[in-house]
Amino acid sequence: MTARPVITLLTDFGLTDPFVGMMKGVIAGICPEAQVIDLTHEVPPQDVACGAFFLERSFRYFPVGTVHLAVVDPGVGTARAPLALTAHRHCFVGPDNGLLSLAASRYRAVRLAERAFTLSQISHTFHGRDLFAPVAAHLARGVPLSSLGPPKKTIVKLAWPRPKKTRTGLAAEVVSVDRFGNLITNVEPSHWKALKKPRLSVGAFQCDELSTSYGAASPRALVAVFGGYGLLEIAARDASAAELLRVERGARVKLSER
């Protein structure tokens, strides 16, 4: 039996308005056999960097050949290019504003230009429905990337904030705060292991040891743990670390030898 094609959706549309439903309706009309999976529609409005982070940390958990449709597009209707690309044996569709770039370290891209694979009417404000959704559906049906438009050699790239070496260790940062108030940093396991006796400092919190889980601490106690993103997190059991520490995305994180 042939596996059903998979299309993921990532947007900043939320679920109050019918925008996501319209996109799914377009996909259903072109590729009704596709399995459409909502990755998230709660990217903060116009926050391209957040959407890029979510996409990069998520796409690898889907089957090879999945089409990832991502729309966080404050430049819709402007000269920014509409884009489709292949990377890591996955397909990605969305605006050329850096949203796809963290997931696509090596890529083959095209600028979407072939009107046979879009809706007949393309609005100036909703390319997610009129352009990107139909293209994603056609890719899921097996249309080759090269049929969608001319090659695009370069795409807009976001710079991932990698930890920087300091005299005593590493200067890192909080790259995301999840709905539980967990502070996700850009510290990878290799960074922690590279230090003989690592010490983590974030705001007023200082920690020398990793926790095995969120629940290993007492209520409202702060812990450091490698979480679901594969990155070091500061969390609080049954509470919000962000609120307890009064720390937001972009806050400084220090990793040093103690």
- The CATH topology of the largest domain: Rossmann fold
CATH superfamily of the largest domain: S-adenosyl-l-methionine hydroxide adenosyltransferase, N-terminal
How many distinct folded domains?
Answer: 2
Give the low-confidence spans.
Answer: none
Description:
The structure is a single chain. The protein has 258 residues and is α+β, with helices and mostly antiparallel strands. The chain folds into two domains: 6-152, Rossmann fold; 164-257, Elongation Factor Tu (Ef-tu), domain 3. It is built from five helices and 15 strands. The strands form two sheets. Strands 8, 9, 10, 11, 12, 13, 14 and 15 form an eight-stranded antiparallel β-sheet that branches. Strands 2-1-3-5-4-6-7 form a seven-stranded mixed β-sheet, with helices on both faces. Strand 4 and strand 5 form a beta hairpin. Helix 1 packs parallel to helix 3 (127-141). The longest helix is centred in the middle third of the chain and has 15 residues, at 127-141. The model has no long low-confidence stretch (mean pLDDT 96).
Short description:
This protein is 19% helix and 28% strand.
Topology, element by element:
Blueprint: E1 6-11, H1 19-30, E2 35-40, H2 48-58, E3 67-71, E4 82-87, E5 90-95, E6 108-111, H3 127-141, E7 151-152, E8 164-165, E9 169-177, E10 183-185, H4 189-193, E11 198-202, E12 205-207, E13 222-226, E14 232-236, H5 241-245, E15 252-257
Parallel strand pairs: 1-2, 1-3, 3-5
Antiparallel strand pairs: 4-5, 4-6, 6-7, 8-9, 9-10, 9-15, 10-14, 11-12, 11-15, 13-14
Helix pairs in contact: 1-3
